[in-house]
Amino acid sequence: MAETNRHRDSAQNPPGNSPAEGSSSGIGRFSKTFLDKIACNDFRLRLAILVFMLLWYGALLAISWRLALNDPERLIFNSMLDHLLRGRFDVDPQIVGYEGYIRNSRVYSYFGIWCALLRLPLWIAHRMNVDMTFWSCLTAVCLASMAKVRALLLIRRRAIGGRIGKQAVKLMLVYVLLAGSAVAVLQVSIYQEVILWAYAFAAIFVYFALKGVIYRSCSTGMLCSMAACAGLALLTRASTGVGLVGAFLILLLVLALKPADTEMSERQATGSRFGLRLVRMLVGSRMLAPLAILAALIAAAGTVNYFRWGNPATFDNPDLYVMKDAWPNFLSSLHTYGYFNIRRIPFGLMYYFVPVWVLRAGDGLLFSMPQSPLLGVVNLPPSSFLLTDLPALGFILFLAIALRMRRGAVIPIGECSAIAAGLLVPCVLMLGFPWMVSRYRMEFYPEFEFLALLGLYLTVSDEAMLAKFKRLRRFFSAGLMVSIVASIGVLALYDVGGDASPDEIMRPGIFHYYVDKVTYHLHRFSEHGFRSQP
After folding, report:
1. Residue 294: which of 282, 311, 309 has the closest Cα?
2. Where are the domains of the chain?
3. Residue-wise over 132-148: b if at least 16 C-beta within 10 A, else e?
4. I need a labelling partner for 388 at 20 to 30 A (CA). Which of 95, 262, 295, 376 fits?
5. Measured at the alpha carbon of residue 491, what is the angle toward residues 455 and 323, in degrees to the nearest 5?
6. Are 355 and 384 contacting, i.e. CB atoms less than 8 angstroms apart?
7. Cα 152-157-163 angle, rounded to 5 deg
8. Cβ(327)–Cβ(258) under 8 Å?
9. What is the radius of gyration, based on Cα positions, of the chain?
10. pTM of the model
C-alpha cells in the first residue's frame, strides 16, 4: 500500500514539477516573455535602456564625485554665463583659478560657451551658485549613448540571418553601454563635461551620417541636424568641432558632385557646366539651410574667440596661461615644435594603444619620450584602445574584409569616405599634439564608432560576412568581456589616481603610486565617509 501511494505521488508530481519548481519556471517564462516584448519594440527598448543608463552612469559618476575634492572650478561655466549675459567674455578669476588666461587685465577661460549656456535654467531660477556638473555629464553621456543605441536599432532592422545577425547587434549594444567611450573617462569634472558634450554632438552626427548611408539619401532635415551638431561641437570643443565641420563640408562637396542620374551626368560633362552645377547644388534649397546653420554657429564661435583672444580663428593662447611655467616643456614644446608635429605621432600611438611608457627601467622610465622637450604634458592613467574597444576594432576589421571582398556595394563609398576623412582629423591632431592626456582618447571615438557601425551593417546584411562572424563570435564575446573589465579598470585608475604626470611615478613606480592613492582614499573614507573635502 505504501509503495502504491508512492507511485501515485510520483505520478501526480513527476520529477521537476514540484510546486516550487513550477512557480520558479512560471516566473522564468514570464520574465522571458516580458523581456522579449521589450526587446522586440524599439520604443520600449530605448526607454528601458534609458532607465538603465541613468542608473549605471549615474552610479559611476556618483563614485567619481565622492572621490573628488570640492573644486571651485566646477562653477566656471556659471561664472561664464553670468558674464556673457552682461556682454562680457571673461570669468571670475577666483573661480577659474590656475586654469585662467590673463589678457588686458582680465581673466578668460578657453572652454567653449555651450556648457555655460546649459546653466541658463540656474540663472532664471536665481541659483547661479549651484554646481550642476554632475547632471550635465550624466545628460551628455546618456545623449551620446542613446544616439548609438538608435544607430544600432537602425542596423538591426536591416539585419538578415535571424539569430546570428541579432547576436552581432546585441554584442555591439552591450559594448556601447558598458565599455569604451561611455565608461573609460566618465568623471565629474569640467574637463570631462566639455569633452562629453562635444562627443555627444559627434555621436548624434555619426547617427545621422549612418542613417544617410543606409538609406542612400540625405534629406534636408538630416543635413541641418548634422550642421547643427558640427557647429555646436565647435562651440564646445574646438578639436572635435573642426573634425565634424570638415566631415560635413566634405560630405556636402561629395553630394554636390554626385550626379542625380546618368542623363544629367552626360549633359554636364564639360568643365564649365560642371562648375556651374557645383555652384547651383551648393546654393540649392537642400544645402542652403544646412550651410546657413553651420555658418551662423561658426560666426558665433568666431565672435567669442575675437573678444577673448583678439582673433576669431584663435581658440586658445597658451602664452597667456596662468600656470604656463608649472611644466618645464609646456611652452617650449609649442614654440619649438608647434601645435602639431609628425615626430610626436610614434609616442602618440604608444600612449593611446600600447602604454608601455609607464614601465620603469632602473631609476627612470623605460622610455625617455615622456620627458622629451617634444612633449609638453604627459598624464596618467595608462589606457589602450586594444583593451577597452575590442568589439569596435573587430567590426572595423570586418569592414576592411567586406570592402576587400567587394561586399561594400550596399554603401555609398564616396559619402562614407568623406565622413571618415573628416572624423580622422581630430585623431591625427591628438597623435601629434604636445599634450598627451587620457581623456583626449574621446577624440578617436567618432571615427572608430562610425567605421565599426559600418562594419556591423555590412556584416549583418550579408550572408558571407555573417558566416565569418558566426565562426568568430566566441572571440567577439571574449573581447567584449575584456573591454568591459578594461574600461571599468581605466575609470577606476582615473578616479583613484587622477591625471598625474610621469614624474609622480618615477620614484615609487606605477604600482606603488596607485597603492598609495587607494590607501589615501580608504583613509578618507574611514575619517569622513567620502564626504567631499575642501
Report:
1. 282
2. 47-325+337-528
3. bbbebbbbbbbbbbbbb
4. 376
5. 110
6. yes
7. 90
8. no
9. 27
10. 0.89
Which cell is 389 given? 574597444
Closest CA to 149 of 224, 199, 207, 193: 207
Q: How far is CA 26 from CA 17, 36, 100, 323, in A?
A: 11, 15, 63, 65
Convert 16-48 to b/e letters by CB count within 10 Å (16 or more is b).
eeeeeeeeeeeeeeeeeeeeeeeeeeeeebeee
Cell (9 digits) for 33: 516573455
Q: CB atoms < 10 A from the CB of 519, how many?
A: 10
462-490 pLDDT, tens digit per residue, is: 899 999 999 999 999 999 999 999 999 99
Q: Is 301 helix (H, G, I), strand (E, B) or coil?
A: helix
Q: What is the largest CA-CA distance in the chain?
A: 106
The CB density around residue 407, as the number of other CB atoms within 10 Å, is: 19
Give the span between the Cα atoms of 530 and 527, in whole angstroms.
8
Percentage of the chain lying above the pLDDT 70 cut: 81
Q: Report in angstroms the alpha-carbon separations of 479 from 311, 394, 487, 528.
A: 47, 9, 12, 39
As given in the structure block, the three cell numbers for residue 489 are: 579598470
Average pLDDT, the chain: 85
Q: Which residues pair with 360 in a beta bridge?
A: 365
The C-alpha cell that represents 470 in the structure block:
558566426
Closest listed residue to residue 375, CA positions, set 353, 354, 357: 357
